[in-house]
# Entry
Amino acid sequence: MTILSHFIISVVDILEIVIRAYTFIIIAAALVSWVRPDPFNPIVQLLYRLSAPAYNLIRKLKIPTVFGGIDIAPIIILLGLEFINRFVLGYIRALAYQI
# Structure
């Protein structure tokens, strides 16, 4: 394997870690939204600030996400992240092994 393939694989590994961390952030924000936390709590504010871009992207697509009072936007985001992790990053990793 060449230096370029090692570099690409390392970047893909880092991106996988970032996706996993963001997955936990989305899950934590969804769980926190169930209990009506103190909006001035710094952890709650951090979770909302980090998860807001993904929620805004889903809402910008005009996809109906509320069914029976339950918002499925976190599920859509988690499925999108898993798709990126498995398909896109998996494909890039496979290409890097071929170099």
Summary: The first strand starts at residue 66 and ends at 67.
